[in-house]
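Predicting structure from sequence has reshaped protein science. With that in mind, we have picked out one protein's residues alongside their backbone shape tokens:
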Amino acid sequence: MYGVIERRRQYLHLMRQVTLEQGYFTVTNIQEAAEVPRSTAQDWVNRLVSEGCVVVKERKQGRIPARYAAVSAVPSSACRRIFTTVDGEWVEIYHECMSGACAAFCGYHHRMAGGALNHVQRDGTLLRECAKLCRGEISIGAYPSPAVGVTGVRREGEMVVQEIRCIGGPAYSLTDMMSGAKGVARVKVRKKGGVVEGEVYTRALTHVIIGIDDTDSPEGGATFALALALLQHIAGMEGLIPIGHHVAMLYPALPGKTAGNSCSFIDVAAEPGVIDQIKDRVYKFVSDEALSHEWGVAIRTGFRIPPELREYGRLVRSGVVSREIADHVARNNNVTLHGGRGVIGALAAVSLWGLDNAVLLNVDAGIPGTGTERITPLNPSEHPCQPVVSRKP
């Protein structure tokens, strides 16, 4: 393996060198410079084209050979997606990186800086941050100070604007990479001494939470699998950005449960004009794919979970709840229910949105906002997305 990696490095170096000298290279250039058979040179060119390290400038025309050019090995953007959802004066900021290490770095420094952010949470390569539409002064600098932070979040028409201050590597990301992320409309940058300040513009999207339950049967199937398939099914819709999939445990002693009694929820960011289309697709997909006739779906827009809805989640995790109670809570909290008995668990799934996996998967864990939590309780009037984080390292 080491020999292959070393040869790759040598060929790529050679291709870059020829590209710098004459603006392009041909397979013959590489064959002669490396003193290898033409087939070997062609194989390496094809391989590096497929990896994105080499681009085709001109295709072969008759006796005129194809021309290629080497590009930088540095990715054009380490930021895959940056998008935002809005619920009143609160904003959820999503930043998906190519690397979990990059997401961890930004999450650590954003949390330390504080500023406009109230909550920072990382799930693999996805960084989720909650902020109020406001500004907050921060201090940026070399270690031990934070290297990057969000100083403000504001709304401009249909856009959300993040105001970012940074130095070093994060400054390079802001100036050279963020504009290439899916979901970013534009980036404005200015330098003030050794500090870079920028504004990142993203669409103000609507957060849609979709709860699902009771789709399996004793003969087979699994609600988590159907929910994941549903997320993949709607992910390609125009005006929609998929966010994630979670599993939550409900009352383990429920009579008639097929296994451990878990439900699932998925969430997406969507343009307001496609929400009805999303609902139609969800209902059709679940009705077609569910193995149980009692399947249920619950759909709610917005990410702020009202106290009554959160309390419903606690009730469903601690005992048997009737369909009548589910209907009543859904009406009071703008949740659309569709289907049979499964709507009871589907509504519970929606009610548990935003909680940590350690709470979702443990029915004995307290739920913030219901008086049963074992961690600092959430004040819904101050923060809708779990406990407020410390702003000190």
